[in-house]
Amino acid sequence: MLHIAPPFGDLLYRLGVDFSNGVIRERDQVLNGDPLNFRVTDFADHPLTRGLQGFNLYGGWALINTDPRARIIARTGPEAWVDLNRDLRLNGNDAVQSFGVVVVGESGKGAFVVFADDAIFQNRFLPENRQLADNLVRWLLNRSLPQLALKPESVGPLLADSTSH
């Protein structure tokens, strides 16, 4: 989960993941009028995305896979943009496209996931992102303890509801 991507550059490069030089601004499914905060609904098939209708990001870096061992499994809409010239305005010098926001991959005997947003599972954001959090727990458990073979339909939510306390 990236808060500030550049300090993690060397690690991400070794995993076959690169990142933008600025945060994503979305023009579709914007939350509370802030283009840095938006809903993501474009997914590739993966255990992390099964059953998801969407999840919310609250500021994030554009991600891209640079190695075939890594792949994008969640992305913005096609009108998202990154302010490449840092003038805080969309213009012809900026990148406008669909950007990756979740990348998964394998390295050695392990696997990894990179989220464009470090706040994605904070308690105040968890209600909107609960299914993704549950899927992440299942995916991690199934990779670590395959004998459990937790299926989404065989168990309910895995995380305690922190909003009811």
Give structural notes.
This protein has 165 residues and is an alpha+beta fold. The protein has one domain. 16% of the residues lie in helices and 32% in strands. The chain has helices at 9-15, 126-144; strands at 17-25, 30-31, 34-40, 42-43, 55-58, 61-65, 70-75, 81-82, 95-96, 100-107, 110-115. The strands form three sheets. It has a four-stranded antiparallel β-sheet with strand order 6-1-8-9. The longest helix has 19 residues, at 126-144. The chain is globular. The mean pLDDT is 86.
Question: Summed up, what is this model?
Answer:
By secondary structure, this protein is an alpha+beta fold. Helices cover 16% and strands 32% of the residues. The chain has two helices and eleven strands; from the N terminus they run H-E-E-E-E-E-E-E-E-E-E-E-H.
Write the layout of secondary structure elements.
Layout: H1 9-15, E1 17-25, E2 30-31, E3 34-40, E4 42-43, E5 55-58, E6 61-65, E7 70-75, E8 81-82, E9 95-96, E10 100-107, E11 110-115, H2 126-144
How would you spell out the order of helices and strands?
HEEEEEEEEEEEH
Number of strands: 11
The total count of helices amounts to: 2
Range of helix content: 10-25%
Shape: globular
Largest sheet: 4 strands, antiparallel
Note the quaternary state here: single chain
Unreliable spans:
none
How many discrete domains?
1
Terminal-residue CA separation:
26 Å
Structural class computed from helices and strand pairing: alpha+beta
Cα-based radius of gyration, to the nearest Å: 16 Å
Question: DSSP strand (E) fraction?
Answer: 25-35%
Mean pLDDT: 86
Instruction: Write out the strand line-up for the largest beta sheet, numbering strands in chain order.
Output: 6-1-8-9
